[in-house]
Amino acid sequence: MLTEQQQAQFWKNGFVSVESVFSDVEVDALRQAAGRPAIQDALEKRRASERVVHLMPLTPLDNAFRELSRHPRLTQCAAQLIGNDIQLSNSKLATKPSTPGAGAFDWHQDFAYYTHTNYDLITISVALDDVTQDNGGMYAVEGSHQYGLLDHTRDGWMVGACIESQRWEANPELVAPMMSRAGGITIHHCLTLHGSPVNRSGNPRRLVIFQYRAGHCYQLSDHIWDDTGYQVYGTPRNVVKCVPMNVALPKNRGWERYCGEPHGSVYRQIGPIAKQWNEETRRRQSTTAND
Ligand SMILES: O=C(O)CCC(=O)C(=O)O
């Protein structure tokens, strides 16, 4: 649970770090899960020893990460910030190689990748290693969650990076570290401008990253992952909240193959694995209710 002060910090700055959410034993179990063949093979295929890899979707690869995605210590924080009906939007293992000098990640807002009908989305990053300025920890621009959606496109195509560099260059005093020791978490708003520099440490940096959305967020573009829409807290209310916004839907070259056209499909909100897991939850709940 977040204290009132932590919640106030989140809403003021657009992010907050919370130390010691998971014990050393729990972190060790997560590291072991990250070391199992399904995940190691997938990382190797993506050349994780040379570059940043965001392994997605993570929860179907190992049950430890499915359990982590719905762990009350995470979902209760999410519920405090965005309400009682929480779905997983996506999950990933974000690795940075130990090769010194490798792995910068450009400044961006997460919302630019996954436009929704409103901004009730947050990202929780769980540190599997101590995350420091030396090993490529993330930085954020304080207060940038109030900027609205910035431009991440060229000629309408998503470039995966914010192109408005004045936003972080003009006010360096607003750029602040968003880091924690292993077992800690950071939480940031979907509009918080953030990025991470190269790893200079010679040590790996692994983060498990969950993006959560309120159930009333309806995805407008991009493709959905197998675990998108997994109900991790509360029950679905089947209400969509729309706030006024003009958003140029970004086109994504690589993702036409998933959805048949470059903006993705607004009709697909729940991935196949999330559907199956949600059905299991419904069955469990109705059995319990009938007992
Ligand atoms: O891996 C990193 O350092 C950056 C991760 C990130 O910014 C993201 O997943 O949105």
Description:
The chain is of the alpha+beta class and 291 residues long. The protein has a single domain, classed as Sandwich (Jelly Rolls). It is 27% helix and 22% strand. It is built from nine helices and 13 strands. It has helices at 4-13, 24-35, 37-45, 63-69, 72-82, 110-113, 166-169, 256-259, 272-290, and strands at residues 15-18, 53-55, 86-96, 105-108, 121-127, 138-141, 153-154, 157-158, 175-178, 185-189, 194-196, 205-214, 230-233. The strands form three sheets. Strands 1, 2, 3, 5, 10, 12 and 13 form a seven-stranded antiparallel sheet that branches. β7 and β8 form a beta hairpin. It is globular. The mean pLDDT is 93. The structure holds 2-oxoglutaric acid. The site of 2-oxoglutaric acid (AKG) has 10 residues, from β11. 2-oxoglutaric acid (AKG) binds at residues 52, 54, 94, 105, 110, 136, 138, 194, 196, 209.
CATH superfamily, please? Answer: q2cbj1_9rhob like domain
Low-confidence stretches are none
Rg over alpha carbons: 18 Å
Determine the structural class based on helices, strands and strand pairing: alpha+beta
In this entry the ligands are: 2-oxoglutaric acid
How many alpha or pi helices?
Answer: 9
End-to-end distance: 31 Å
